[in-house]
Design a protein that fits this description.
The structure is a single chain. The chain has 13 helices and ten strands. The strands form two sheets. Strands 3-4-5-6-7-8-9-10 form an eight-stranded parallel beta barrel. It has two domains: 53 residues, no CATH class; 269 residues, TIM Barrel. It is α/β, with parallel strands linked by helices. The protein is globular and about 70 Å long.
């Protein structure tokens, strides 16, 4: 939150008023402040009740533009929660925790078991699995690599997968093995993170083909996409588009790189703005002149009103918004 020296001003048992929307903390709020917060809480609860009645209504903007509301998934508990709030599938299943919590590489079968459970929990919906977004700042205990001075710009995401091809192919085999065309489950989609160049996309797809051959399955009906979170990828969107079925605009990293502002540093946290006109139009501009229509985009979690709140702020071309399941519930 960037609230500095807070612990120096508080003691055990002291009441705090935390405003998660504004990012402020009031120490020992007075009666008027407490009353104001209590009123806001009551209004939020009333709003939640009204929204719960719309649980099964398809997502759309005020002008009728259809936008799927999909959940981010980090574990099986999120799958159940997403279903409870009416998520239309998952725009991002984070798979890296399977690797980060293991002393050795999880077997293909162990991975496939988890992926199959996620698919089973979201039947009839598209479920986008992001291949392991690890390495550099999120090292794996069973992959030995030299330390990096600037891990944010190092061997992570798809770069690690291409540097350790057996690791990537095994994960892709597990994803394909989890898919059962005869079962009542979600529709498998696969997404590669931190892509920078079209060549990386080609090599990643070659790994997917190798995995399919090893499993003896075809890739019919499986959508393949990439994260647009590196400025180079946004600039070359017109060359990447023919290689994929969809883009996922990862605004956290993309804004961090575009504005040269560490998203974890409070002093520069106000610089990145997802609604900056150049930011929101960049992938669309990158596709101009391409014979291949730009794929549907999925937007990284942002406050919903900032992404789909109105004509002047809507990110053009967005067909799916993915957020934490808690956001779908408010």
């Amino acid at each position: 939150m960037g609230v500095t020296d807070l612990l120096a001003d508080v003691s055990d048992g002291l009441l705090l008023a935390l405003d998660g929307e504004a990012g402020t903390v009031i120490v020992a709020p007075g009666d008027d402040e407490r009353s104001s917060y209590e009123q806001r809480i009551a209004e939020q609860e009333e709003r939640n009740t009204r929204l719960a009645e719309l649980r099964d209504v398809p997502g759309a903007t005020a002008d009728g533009h259809r936008v799927e509301l999909a959940a981010n998934i980090g574990g099986l508990e999120d799958v159940e929660a997403a279903g409870e709030v009416g998520a239309e599938g998952s725009g991002l299943v984070r798979t890296e925790f399977l690797f980060q919590e293991a002393a050795e590489e999880p077997s293909i079968e162990e991975q496939a078991d988890f992926y199959a459970k996620v698919l089973a929990g979201l039947p009839g919906h598209r479920v986008v699995f992001r291949t392991m977004d690890v390495g550099a700042d999120k090292p794996l205990p069973f992959v030995v690599r030299d330390p990096e001075e600037n891990p944010a710009l190092g061997v992570r995401g798809i770069r690690l997968g291409l540097a350790e091809p057996a690791l990537l192919v095994n994960q892709l085999r597990a994803l394909l093995r989890a898919r059962d065309p005869d079962a009542d489950q979600g529709r498998l989609a696969i997404m590669f993170p931190l892509v920078s160049t079209p060549d990386e996309v080609r090599r990643a797809r070659e790994s997917l083909v190798a995995a399919a051959e090893a499993e003896g399955v075809d890739l019919d009906g499986i959508e393949v996409g990439v994260m647009i979170e590196v400025p180079a990828a946004a600039l070359s969107a017109h060359r990447i588009a023919p290689l994929v079925d969809f883009f996922s605009v990862g605004t956290n990293d993309l804004l961090q790189y575009l504005f040269a502002a560490d998203r974890l540093l409070a002093e520069v946290a106000d610089l990145p703005d997802v609604c900056d006109p150049d930011v929101r139009s960049r992938p669309q501009q990158g596709g101009e002149g391409s014979a291949h229509p730009l794929a549907p985009r999925i937007v990284e979690h942002q406050p919903p009103d900032a992404v789909i709140g109105g004509h002047d702020r809507r990110v053009q071309g967005v067909e799916r918004v993915r957020v934490a399941h808690a956001v779908l519930d408010v």
